[in-house]
Design brief:
The structure is a single chain. The protein is mainly α. It is about 80% helix and about 0% strand. It contains three helices and no strands. The protein has helices spanning about 1-30, 40-65, 75-95. Helix 1 packs across helix 2, helix 1 (about 1-30) runs antiparallel to helix 3 and helix 2 crosses helix 3 (about 75-95).
């Protein structure tokens, strides 16, 4: 039972990270298409905070991936890896029952 609880906590943390990645992606699009302006202090603070949280995780992925020009696929790779990790942990927890 404790293993299932640990997997649920890991699932919650993975879902939080995935949500942060999606928020960073959407905010990046809004900034790129000039919908929101970086001169707004709130937008700049949120953008800086999101990059500070995710850059340590995304930089190793970016180094391993081939350069694709303006499109950055590292958030997608991170989300896929996290979901695979969640599936593996879930299956290990349920297999131990």
């Amino acid at each position: 039972m404790i293993l299932i609880t640990i997997v649920e906590i890991i699932a919650l943390l993975i879902n939080v990270v995935v949500t942060i990645v999606i928020v960073q992606f959407v905010l990046g699009l809004l900034i790129a298409f000039n919908v929101v302006n970086m001169s707004n202090q709130f937008v700049a603070a949120v953008w800086t905070a999101l990059n500070a949280l995710l850059d340590p995780v995304l930089q190793p992925i970016r180094r391993l991936m081939p350069h694709t020009g303006a499109v950055d696929f590292s958030p997608l790779v991170l989300i896929i890896c996290l979901k695979i990790l969640l599936i593996v942990f879930s299956n290990l927890a349920f297999a131990s029952l």
